[in-house]
Structures are given as structure tokens and as C-alpha cells.
Amino acid sequence: MRILLTGAFAYTPAQLAQLKNMGLEITFVQDEREPLEMDVSAFEAVVCNGLFLYNDIRRFSSLRFIQVTSAGLDRLPLDYIRAQGIRLCNARGVYSVPMAEWAVGGVLSLYKHLNRFSEQQKNRLWEKDRTVRELAGQTVCIVGAGSVGTACAQRFKAFDTTVLAADIRKPPGGFDAYYPMDKLQDALARADVVVLTLPLTDSTRGLFDAEMLAGCKHGAVLVNIARGAVVCEAALVAALESGRLSGAVLDVFETEPLTESSPLWQMEQVLVTPHNSFVSGRNGERLFHLIEENLRAYLNQGGKE
Predict the structure, then answer these.
(1) Annotated catalytic residue, options 134, 241, 256, 293
(2) 227, 233, 244, 254: which is the annotated catalytic residue?
(3) Alpha carbon distance 185, 193 (integer Å)
(4) Are 87 and 100 in the same domain?
(5) Rounded to two decimals, what is the model's pTM?
(6) Per-residue pLDDT averaged across 134-145, rounded?
(7) N or C terminus of the chain: which is more exposed, having fewer CB within 10 Å?
(8) Is 275 a catalytic residue?
(9) Do 59 and 121 have their domain in common?
(10) What is the pLDDT of residue 150?
């Protein structure tokens, strides 16, 4: 089977040899953002990330299998993929642990005013802060109870919190209560911490607008490790300035990099990081295992036969 691999994943020589031993005829391109000048009509499988943002998928006339290296699918022509019956696999579970750790760490940083203490350390200032908060006993709402959301729930529960799930379907377990998406505002009204881990779709784009944010519990903290476009940033800034939200932990933004003029940079109650929550030294091992596993399953089922 002919397969196209891109630089979206850094394969080791041993990993490439492993894939070749599966009977794969490999072509590798480093930069998937460049238009491919080669004939791509014979590729039955592709492992990529944003390849089809820059190359017309219709040129891949033999394509039957796509593995993306991201958890999100918003960078793909999903209607075409479904219509053609192409098997699509994402990186489900690969980034869940580091993202969940980051979410908990960000909330703790805000609750314990760690940025303020860091500044005091730089200035050799010994000054107690009697306003730090305790996470135990709080209510956390996870909006999007998939792999990342479930990993977040496990870790927040370890801090003696009550964890709610809001999703289009009821998760199998790990949550104290479930709210369907048409009852999302009921969940938000209870939550001291709101963690966004839902995918970006037509129905979730701009979901957290001024009206939705106004329904949050007064003084809640918003964590976004989903996609920036799920939240209306102007409405978020207004909610932070008004005190409706007491803080935000933000790793994704409507426009990336975050523009220098954004007021979010200067807000003491906001933690801004550069779409970094998924990073871990163990991701490569997990992702290659998943790529290999999904390719073997496809080959064992007869490929396009």
C-alpha cells in the first residue's frame, strides 16, 4: 500500500523501518504546507495534520485512510471525507494527560496567586497573601466529555471537587453529574471552574458568547484548551473586566498568535500560554503507537477491499 507521511510527525529511522516492514511503500514530505507537485493519485493512505488546507484532497483519488496527528478534526474537509467513505482516525488520547495536567495547574496558579508570588520573589519581597483560594469543595464543569475532558475530570476529582459533564451524549463514567448541551447553562450556573475541551464545529463556534458567559456563576474561572473560536474573545474580555469571571486560563485563541494589542496580555487574572498545553516528551511514543495500531487495523481489514 502506498502511503504519504508528512513532517507533522518526526519519525525515527526505526519507526520508518517498522512501517516498511508492514508492507507500506512510504513517500515522505517534510512541509505539508507546500503544494505537492508530485502525482498523489496513487496514495491510499496519508498521515498528516494540515495537509488538506494546502492541497486539494480531490487530487488523492485513491485515498481510503487518513490519520491526523491532532485530536481536532476542524482542519479537514469532513463532508468530502464522509461522502467518499474514507476512514478517518484522529490522535484521540495522545495529548489528554498533558492537557489535563495543564488545566489543573492553570487553575491552581490562579487560585494560589502564583504569578504574584513569582513577582515578589524577583523583587525579594516577603509579603503574605491572605486572599488565596482552595480548590477542594469547588464545582468543576467539563464542557466536552471526551478523552481530554475525562482526563481533566479524573485529575480535578483528586482535589475533592464535584465534577459535572456537559456533552451531546452521556459519558460512561468519571463524572458526578451529566448535563446535555441544551442544559449547559444549568451546569454553568453551578460551576466555579469551567473547562472547555469540546471540538470546534459549526454548532460550537462562538458558543461562549456574551449571553453564555453571562450565565456563568459569578466569579467563575474559565479554562480553554479546546479551540479559540469556541469563545468570543471580546465577550470574554468584557466578562473579565466586569468581574463576572474572576479569571481565565487560556491556551488557545481566535487568532494565533494572540495579537499584541489584546487586553488579555495585561490582565493579572488571566494566564496566557501559546497553544502549548498538549506538549509532552511522551507524546511521540503515544502517537506512533496509535498510528501503527490504526494502520494495522486498516490493513488487517483488507484495506480498501
Answers:
(1) 256
(2) 227
(3) 13
(4) no
(5) 0.94
(6) 98
(7) C
(8) yes
(9) no
(10) 98
Measured in whole angstroms, the distance separating CA 165 from the mean position of its chain's CA atoms is 16
**What's 125-140 look like in SS3?**
CCCCCCCCCCCCCCEE
| Beta-carbon-side half-sphere exposure of residue 13 (alpha carbons within 13 Å) | 0
Under 8 Å between Cβ of 22 and 296: yes
| AA letter at 164 | L
Average pLDDT score over residue span 106-132: 98
The CATH number linked to 80 is 3.40.50.720
Task: Report phi then psi at 110, rounded to 5.
Answer: -70, -45
A 10 A CB-CB count for 242 gives: 11
227 is catalytic: yes
Spell out the residues 6+ positions from residue 214 whose beta carbon is closer than 8 angstroms to its own: 239, 244
Q: Which residues contact 225 (CB under 8 A, 6 or more apart)?
A: 99, 102, 103, 148, 195, 196, 197, 251, 252, 277
Phi, psi values for residue 246, rounded to 5°:
-85, -10
Which residue among the candidates 155, 275, 286, 292 is catalytic per the annotation?
A: 275
